[in-house]
What does this fold into?
Amino acid sequence: MERSNRLLLAKARRIDAPVVVLHVVAEPERTAEAIAGLEALGGVLGASELSAGSLRLSMPTENVERAAALPAVTSMTVEQVPPRGATRQSSPPPR
It folds into this structure.
């Protein structure tokens, strides 16, 4: 995981944010596998976020590093640390 992602993840942990919003790139032929793995870790995919292996989702903060290690995931960026009041099962905000 890149340094900027680690810093945002540290911020999320410091403020006790239950979720973060991620942009995940999966191998196109393994997108379904990536989605299944991310959902198994508590990720909630946005309704219209799937396009050519590019996914946007909310993920429980404690599972971000495990999500980054999924075999079908090629890269991951922490896009947003929602405010403390965010719920674990909220969908990522629309773009």
